[in-house]
Amino acid sequence: MAVKIYTKEKAEGYFLTGFMSLIDVLTQRPSLETIEPLPLAEEIKEAFRGENNTYRKLLDIAVKLEAADFDWLERLTDFPLTLSQLFECYGRAAAWAERLFHEYFNEYKDGDDVEEQESL
Q1: 8: helix, coil or strand?
Q2: Angle subtended at Cα 29 by Cα 25 and Cα 35, rounded to the nearest 5 degrees
Q3: Is the pLDDT of residue 28 over 90?
Q4: What's phi and psi for 33, nearest 5 deg?
Q5: In which band, very low, low, confident or very high, does the pLDDT at 117 lie, cut at 50, 70 and 90?
Q6: What residues contact residue 11 under an 8 Å CB cut-off, 6+ apart?
Q7: Helix ranges restricted to H, the chain
Q8: Model pTM?
């Protein structure tokens, strides 16, 4: 989404925002506790504080796409991408994540134990 509507130079920041949105799950600590000391752009930190900026807007949209909250998404009127374009972006992101998963984790099949794979 960021590449389509914002400058490519900032795309990495938007990607990082999405990546960091799950840091609380990984660290078992509140997101802000982990993010605040990091050398991130202030706009990214503001988004995690709940402040209204473009990083927060895209993060909210990504979360609503993931949750299939179509009612919320259909009410987006102040966003330059159509619902169809948002779904296209989401589909591309999901396909990229799937390729990445298979590229790095394909040696472990569903249900297989890591020790079983290492013994092969």
Answers
A1: helix
A2: 90
A3: yes
A4: -60, -35
A5: very low
A6: 2, 3
A7: 2-5, 11-20, 23-27, 31-35, 42-48, 54-66, 70-74, 83-105, 114-119
A8: 0.75
Count how many residues are written for the chain: 120
3-state DSSP assignment of residue 71: helix
- pLDDT tens string 47-106: 999 999 989 999 999 999 999 999 999 998 888 888 999 999 889 888 988 898 888 877
The whole-number average pLDDT for the span 22-35 is 91
> What angle do helix axes 11-20 and 54-66 make, rounded to 10 degrees?
50
Residue 50 is encoded by which pair of tokens? Answer: 């709940």
Nearest CA to 57 among 47, 66, 65, 45?
47
Q: Are 99 and 117 in contact (CB under 8 A)?
A: no
The answer to whether the CB of 51 falls within 8 A of the CB of 38 is no
In terms of phi and psi (left: phi > 0; alpha: psi -120 to 50; beta: otherwise), the region of 111 is left
Distance, in Å, from the CA atom of 15 to the CA atom of 65, rounded to the nearest integer, reads 16
Please state, in angstroms and rounded to a whole number, the distance separating the CA atoms of residues 90 and 56.
Answer: 17
